[in-house]
Known about the structure:
alpha/beta
Amino acid sequence: MRKCRIFDLKRPRENCIRRDIRRMRVPFDKGALINKLLPNFDVASSHSQHGSEAAFATIKERWFAVNYQSVGVIGAGAWGTALAIAACRAERNALIWAYERETVDEINNQHTNTVFLPGVNLDQKIRATSDLAEIAACDLLLMVVPSPHVRRIAEQLAPHIHTKPLVICSKGFEETSNKLMSDVVIETLPHILPAVMVGPSFAAEVAQGLPAALTLAVRDERLGQGVAKALGSNSLRLYWTGDMLGVQIGSAVKNVLAIASGIVVGRRLGANAQAALITRGFAEMMRFGVAMGAREETLSGLSGFGDLILTCYSQQSRNMSLGVALGEGKTLAEILGSRRSVSEGTHAAAAVVARARALGVEMPICDAVRAVLADEADIDEAIAGLLSRPQRSETDWR
């Protein structure tokens, strides 16, 4: 068989890039990667001291031109499965990576995922695997594992992936470092083309094809266009932005506020209290996000205000339903012990408050949730503390 070269005009360039990257199953070596993907690029003779960086820029440019026909979803939870369905609806080949062998077998044989997305029949074209090397061969990757597992899975993925688009769909902060998910992934996989996709969306509704809209944060608009083409449809709209920080802050803080909203419902404090809490919670999100460097328009968009509204008003939300259970008197251990899914707000609360304190930003609602989750205050004490705060101007952002 004739060897496929990137500059062989008789074969599509993007196909050559895909095949050559797939064959690389060795520990990362920058020089080897450049020589493999750009055989005509001589870094040593380059007059620029940034020759290797220029080579990687060239490789990334090639990936922007790829038509992402195969989509690899890392994580077989409800949201990962729904995104695989969305990719299939957009006429892409979808492959799901699952940790549980029984989930892989069920998806491949019964075409269902009854544990994580019950009541939904999957297209028979959707396949599952437990092999990260196989998932890494896809054109476009989606990271959809719970935030506590993102670093571990990225480390396991590292030997199989180099320069390739990877969309982070996991929300929140890493519990041990308080880092955002993009920081964790880029630190572990430094040469990926990163993106973040979040927004007001329940997995079951997206799987059913009901209308939804998400925000896609990218560093290059061409990547946003490519991902939108690979995942978007008449029922799923993607709006891209360059504010990768802002979309993650909104999606992390709203989970903490959703727990607070659920507590209001569980304690039967009324619709007035719930509306007030959500509004003042949004003010906390805004001042924290701006202090972190996020754009106000991002926080007031789909990934911030939009996701906040959805998560705080529906018990389909894992975080809101957890708050309801807490408000009704159940302990955190009892609630988590009966669930297989992860409520990201339980991990995000401490991280958000720690970062806010370091920035000198006041977040009393988030701090009250953190105190309740850490068993530092009971719910009635936390509520009394919020209601007894001094009267103040609504526009005071301190």
